[in-house]
Amino acid sequence: MIEVRGLVYDYPTLRALHGVSLDIEVGTVLALVGPNGAGKSTLMRCIAAMDTPTEGAVRVAGLDTQADPRAVHAAIGYLPDFFGLYDELSIRRSLIYAARSRGVAQGAVDAAVARAAAQVQLDDRMEQRAGELSRGLRQRLAIAQTIVHQPRALLLDEPAAGLDPEARRSLSDLILNLAGEGMTIVVSSHILAELEDYSSRMLMIRDGRVAGGGVVAAGVRDEARVKATFADPPADLAAQLAAMGVAVERRDGDVVEIALGAGEDDAALLTRLVTAGLRIRAYQPVTRTLEDAYMAQAPR
DSSP state, 78? Predict the structure, then answer.
């Protein structure tokens, strides 16, 4: 869906991107992470055909951002970190304006507006003015304006900044719903907790370069490790596990992370633990979180 090749971007006194390359598949929710000033926003603007790179190429849905930027604008929705709304316009009029400005045909505007409002759950507030909305509802309206033309890809730059926990949860649910409808989504943030609930892939940017080898999966099962929570563990638990040949990688109180032995599956290990008289309260495969993936790529 999105292909970036050898992207270089120069500001007058600074090189912001140094030969960035990546591929984003259809239906992916990609977390674009990295410290402030790493080049995330510049990369998103280049993908959105808002800025022209110094070198390299970007293709979105087969369209070259430099050769046909207007077609790219029609294929994507882009919400920058700082966005504006017309406070005196109602939600309905805001969406009508956004639809017409994004090329939606006059006869299709009403349906497009109704669909976008329903997607962000604002369809019961259509006559309320934008200036009367809370921060979270303003964010929903901004996203509705961004998707009113039914883009194939959505780029969100720091979308959860300033939102309270309830509004962040609503944003997470919205992103998951849009992804479930087949939209490819890129979300930029330097706060991993904002991205954990909905991102399926991650790309880390540091000093304008791709870190850690490119796009990686997050939230996937680690086939080689399990996590066991012991009920009333004996004082010599570590010694008992060592005597059984169980490789403990990490322990936090009653919770022990265990590396599976060669040729052993998680069910066989559980049988051995229970047979040894150890009481297990919980037992589950280890899932690599976004933070795990990030820390694995971070410089030591």
Answer: E
